[in-house]
Amino acid sequence: MFHFNLKEVMNTSLKVEVPASIANIGPCFDIASVAISLFKDEVEVIVKEGTGKVEVEVINKTVPEGNQNTAYGAAKSIIESYNVNNLNVLIKVKKGIPIAAGLGSSGATAAAVTFGLSKLLSIDLNKEEMVYHAGNGESIVSGVPHYDNVSASLFGGVVLVDPNTMKVIRLNAPNFHLALITPKIEFGNFKTKLARSILPKTIDIRTHVMQSFQVAKLITGILNNDLKLIGEAASSDLIVEKERSKLIPFYWEAKKLALSEGALGFNISGAGPTVFAVCSSESTATNVAKSVSSFFISHGVEASHFVTTPSQHGAKVVEGGNYNE
User: Is the pTM of this model over 0.85?
Assistant: First the structure.
């Protein structure tokens, strides 16, 4: 059993802020993600004496509460791993990341809880353990743990994560701008499960070779701050994009338009439906975002658009102290 001083942690709380993220970044399915600056979740974790119970409340009522929330899964993962059965955890989630948009919303909540609860209980989790517990939370909505979004929300920048060992390699994100366009498409519940279910179970060796080169090109571009390489690689996914694009009306026309308007690269953010464009300047990103959004709207698909940049910052404590009823 993990030992801690109950009197010291009882009725204490932390508020944690975590960024949204773009998973896959084109060819890197399930192994890479980049944190973004625009959207954030705020999660308050409160510890009280009890029997291991976890409660989850969503302040702005945008996602399910209780055991249907990724916060619940992350907290339970830690409590059960360390056999912490003499306290209760109350989690208050304030969603700032758009839900079901492909921007790592569910993973961000799980990451925030993992970070906050480990700090409150003074559990010295390494990166792999952080990713493991946050991934267990994410599995509530995705069906199985996956670790790219939670890693970016935890550590910021660009992250590479081994899905077998949860080992994380963090890279500083180059200075570029991102146009985000979110067409309004109704997928129903468990969008991530749907988006994963349509992917091929096998690929041929030629596709593997070509995809591996694009992964290498993307990482090289990030390391060398070469935006042209980053954009080319982000646009070149031979496996996931062609399947998930079927869920987004007029996707290929939108991609062609974005590239013609100066985007360096274009692809689907995570499970979608948000699409992203890599751009060298804010003005180009703004123009691309407006143009692609207008294109969707002109074809009968409601859409919103945003411009953002990569975030170098992951999870952070924004407030902490005693909690009073």
Answer: yes
Sign (positive/negative) of CA torsion 189, 304, 246, 176?
negative
* CB neighbour burial string for 175-210, b if at least 16 within 10 angstroms, e if fewer: ebbbbbbbbebeeeeebbeebbeeeeeeeeeeeeee
CATH 3.30.70.890 in the chain: give the residue spans: 177-308
Whether residue 65 is predicted with pLDDT greater than 80 in this model: the reply is: yes
DSSP annotation of 63: S
Residue 1: what pLDDT? 45
Full DSSP string of 148-186:
HHHHHHHH-SEEEE-TTT--EEEEPPPS-EEEEEEE---
**19 cis-preceded (ω within 30 degrees of 0):** no
Lowest mean pLDDT among 21-35, 129-143, 230-244, 269-283: 129-143
Q: What is the pLDDT of residue 193?
A: 73
* DSSP 8-state assignment for residue 322: E
Q: What's the CATH code, domain 177-308?
A: 3.30.70.890
Tell me which residue has tokens 């279910």: 197
Question: Which CATH code fits 6-172?
Answer: 3.30.230.10
Q: What is the pLDDT of residue 190?
A: 61
